[in-house]
Amino acid sequence: MAMKTLKFRIILWIIILIVTPILFNKVTAMIGESMMRKAMAQPQAVQVANPVKQDIFISTESAGRIEAKYTVDVVARINGWLQKRYFAEGAMVKAGQTLFLIEPNEYEIAVSNAQASVKQAEAAYVNAEKELKRAVELVKNDYVSKSYYDQALAARDGNKAAFEAAKAALSNAKLNLSYTKVVSPIDGKIGKIMITEGNLVNAQTGPLARIVSTSPIYATFNLKSADYLKFKKAGTNANLDNMKVTVKLADGSEYPEEGKIEFVNNEVDMSSGTIALRATFENKEGLLVPGDYIQVVATTVVPKTVMLIPQAAAMDESEGYYVWVVKEDDTIEKRTIIVSDDVDNNWVVESGLDYGDKVVVKGIQRVFMDGQKVIIEEPEAAEGQQAQPQKKQEPKKNIFRKIGAKVIKIFNKDKK
Fold first, then answer.
1. What is the pLDDT of residues 83-123, one digit of tens each?
2. Is 15 helix (H, G, I), strand (E, B) or coil?
3. pLDDT digit string (tens) for 152-175?
4. Could you tell me the end-to-end alpha-carbon distance of the chain, in angstroms, rounded to an integer?
């Protein structure tokens, strides 16, 4: 009998434990609803402002990188021993400046041999030309047969071809000799040496060094397709080359020179939804270094008329932004808006508002439901009104802990 009583009491207290939180939540909800009704019945003081019409310049900031206009890997074009270099690593070099010397001895000898071959072939050709002239006279007077003339003509043509081939071989030998001096093809800054003196080099051994041009220089960046459309609609021309382009350096400072758009890609990248652009900077001071990360700021040169509201007036939720608008009967209406850019702590409103709307800009924390009554105050009055201090809430006793302790006490008593 004692065990049945114990089980009954345990089940009873379990039911109490389950039901009590439910009742507590319902009572709390009822109290909250009652307080909300009371708050709605009492008009709240707010400050309002009308949306402002203003001409602005559309601007966007995106990450970019500095790229050299020309990047050249300096390579050997002939086979030979790398004998000498004529520059300091990291120095500026000019187009045509000698950078390396490949041992020229064998190529100088090849030129000398080719020159001798040219002289030999030239002599044979001159002699064959003379023999042909004599043959012409002899055939004309019937002193020799026509076949003698044909042989003289063939000899002249053969020696002429040999002479031309010898001259071509000499040109090739001189060209190879010129390749023993490795020169810079561009103006720019040369990097570290990748193959040092004393090594055997050829076209397959890889670059000896790398040169990058520094002036002019490129800044490449991407625009979101939506931003690209904004610029197009704001009066920017087809190539976007009338945009103002500036960059922020890695340390956050602004680069003083303006760039010029010189390339816009012909398609949007499907994976990122962006379109690639490239701007050119003169970079006279050399502050822009290839490979460096920057922030690119692009701005229209033609102003656009837009509607602005303070950012503090717009609230954010999962569906987007909304504002509270005071209607003619001094009640509040929640209005969903679409915003685009931000300008000096203001949102650019694309849709959802009219210029005559009264948008709540101060006292937003005191409004929370459509239909709530408000009182429009002057800025000074609204700003001066302070929220009433709330009474300090005493910590509630943990009723569930007390109930659990009571159950354990009863259980121990019955067990005894």
1. 999 999 999 999 999 999 999 999 999 999 999 999 999 99
2. helix
3. 889 999 999 999 999 999 999 999
4. 14
Residues 29 and 149 in one domain: no
Radius of gyration of the chain (CA): 45
Pair (292, 328) in one structural domain: no
Q: What is the pLDDT of residue 414?
A: 47
Q: At what angle do helices 399-415 and 2-41 cross, to 10 degrees?
A: 170
CA–CA separation, 57 vs 189, rounded Å?
38
Cα angle, residue 358 at apex, residues 332 and 383 outer, rounded to 5°: 85
- Is it true that the peptide bond before 379 is cis, omega within 30 degrees of 0? no
- Collapsing DSSP to helix, strand or coil, 60 comes out as strand
Contact 281, 256 (CB under 8 A): no
Measured CA distances, 59 to 42, 247, 248, 342, 391 (Å): 44, 13, 14, 10, 49
pTM: predicted TM-score of the whole model, two decimal places:
0.64
DSSP 87: S
What is the domain-level CATH number for residue 327? Answer: 2.40.420.20
User: Does residue 94 share a domain with residue 196?
Assistant: yes
Residues 76 and 160 occupy one common structural domain: yes
Is 230 in contact with 106 (CB distance < 8 Å)? no
Residues facing 321 on adjacent strands = 316, 337
CA dist 225 and 62 (Å) reads 13
Phi, psi of 183 (to 5 degrees): -110, 160
Q: In whole angstroms, how far apart are CA 127 and each of 97, 124, 131, 159?
A: 44, 5, 6, 9
Domain that holds residue 405: 1-34+391-416
Cα–Cα distance measured from residue 95 to residue 80, given in angstroms and rounded to the nearest whole number:
23
* Degrees to nearest 5, angle at CA 43 with 365 and 361: 40
